[in-house]
Amino acid sequence: MWLKGLRGPILDDKNAKRLFGVVKDLEYGLTYARDMVKHNLSEEIENLIINKDLNGIGTVCELREMMETEIEYSLKIGKKVKKIKTQSDLLALVYSPKAEIRKAAYRELLVKQKKNLHKFFAAYSAIVKDWGYEAKLRKYESAIEVRNIGNDIPNEAVDELLKVCQINRDIFHKFFKWKAGELEKNKLERFDIYAPLDKIDKKIEKEKAINLVLTSFDKFTPKFGLYARQIIESQHIDWMPKKDKRGGAFCATIAPQIKPYILLNFTDKTRDVSTLAHELGHGIHSMYAQNHYSSAQ
Q: Which residues form the Peptidase M3A/M3B catalytic domain (predicted)?
């Protein structure tokens, strides 16, 4: 019937379960998609939303990133002024063992953001309104339920997690008090949150970081090291900060036959070693799943 453009009878739950189970690799994805039907809209509206996301709110998100990557910074410490071209290089300084450097980095970041506050707010407001409107249109109970269901996590699980964190917030208070003591301060300030306890500003160059991570993976299981090396040797990692490059880090799975791609902003800090290991971990996960269909990977 579908060849003639006609709709056939609706698939009942019993037959859906039977048919979805034929290809085990796709069973979970098909079952999940069927469960999501209650939030689907008409075909015409779904097409409108897809185009709205691509050409509307998606562009707003891109513009917000462009605004951020265009900002340059001037870090003033004493009488010296240092020009910094990327936010990644600036944020690396909030991990400095020197309080005056951390403070200067935070202040410069906030000063530049304040100057562009109306632009950032316009983008943020548009994104929030779009998210809330679509959540309402699709009959979600709340804005956060969209994310919960997208991650296949019950609302109750997230609510319980937040509740337990609230009840046990004194654990964080105790930690911050302890850290203030280690930094020889009466009270922890905002720019002390990421302060290292080591007084020496350690630098770890890229090659050393790679060796540290690969050695660790090899000890865990040789296959971890093998997959990590394949990603690195494929030159699928964008390593260094540069002008107009977005901040942060992520790993992108493209297809089973293609090695994952990784974006980093490596600044020779110890934290960058952990970030490299973290993102390679995502890539290794993808490569372990490369024998699956792309929709199930």
A: 93-295
